[in-house]
Design a protein that fits this description.
264 residues; alpha/beta; 3-stranded parallel beta sheet; 11 helices; globular
């Protein structure tokens, strides 16, 4: 299970936007958002997805044929080779499309003097929707010329969640929770054997309650520590918001190094 420790912070950011829209509206005029799902639905992306799915299915069939009669070590080697082929095909099909989309976003953002563009899914209020302009730019014929200027300094910061996940304390917390969940799951399966549907429902409810308690014990302390670190760094850099890098599309201020330094 992948534990997103930063999720509590992301929720807090969204809540701030919802509770104080009038106060923030003036401050975030230079923030844009784009519907990345709309970009992914473009014919070029849909065609690439079909091609990749077909290649993946054929590769899976080839893999099954290749491992017949092979030792476990040879199977692992073949598995690695086929994964590399899948990754190479994915890059071949999608990298040019993603690069064109990213350039289009940067160009539109520069034209509108935006310091940052985020994914539409995290926006509740405010910002400018540049999705139509981006889609129109992507659809133009020829090469999209990137903007000359880099994005201006932004009051929106971002943190790379994947780097936080790699911290020893984060790995230890995730491992402790995963082990507890496995043990509780095994206990639940044992308890449910031969029980009525009503009793099984009670056992499942008890399992969920215990799992929630375990999450509070293993995960919440680190969540609290991360939230404090991000909050301190945000104040230091005078940032209006801090989001997960996965929700950042363009621009923004990278405060990952400062957050990691605070957590070590």
């Amino acid at each position: 299970m992948h534990i997103r420790f930063i999720s509590a912070i992301a929720v807090a950011i969204v809540a701030a936007l919802a509770l104080a829209p009038q106060a923030l509206a003036v401050d975030i005029n230079d923030i844009g958002f784009v519907d990345q799902s709309a970009i992914g639905a473009l014919p070029a992306f849909a065609s690439a997805q079909v091609q990749f799915s077909q290649f993946r299915d054929q590769t899976a069939r080839d893999f099954q044929a290749a491992i017949k009669g092979k030792s476990q070590a040879d199977q692992q080697r073949i598995y690695g080779d086929f994964n590399q082929k899948l990754a190479a095909k994915q890059h071949e099909l999608f990298d040019p499309l993603l690069s064109r989309a990213q350039t289009a976003i940067a160009l539109v953002a520069a034209q509108k003097s935006m310091s940052v563009v985020v994914d539409k899914q995290i926006v509740i209020y405010g910002g400018q929707d540049i999705t139509k302009d981006v889609l129109s730019t992507i659809g133009q014929s020829g090469v999209i010329v990137p903007p000359v200027n880099t994005p201006p300094p932004s009051e929106v910061g971002y943190v790379d969640q994947t780097q936080i996940d790699q911290l020893p304390k984060a790995k230890a917390a995730a491992q402790a929770f995963a082990q507890a969940r496995q043990q509780l799951g095994q206990q639940m399966q044992t308890q449910m054997a031969g029980k009525s549907q009503s009793d099984q429902a009670t056992i499942v409810a008890q399992f969920n309650a215990k799992l929630k308690d375990e999450q509070k014990k293993d995960i919440q302390p680190l969540n609290d520590e991360i939230e404090k670190a991000v909050s301190d760094v945000a104040r230091k850099h005078k940032l209006l918001l801090v989001i997960d890098q996965a929700d950042r599309v363009y621009g923004g201020t990278d405060v990952t190094a400062d957050v990691l330094s605070s957590l070590k």
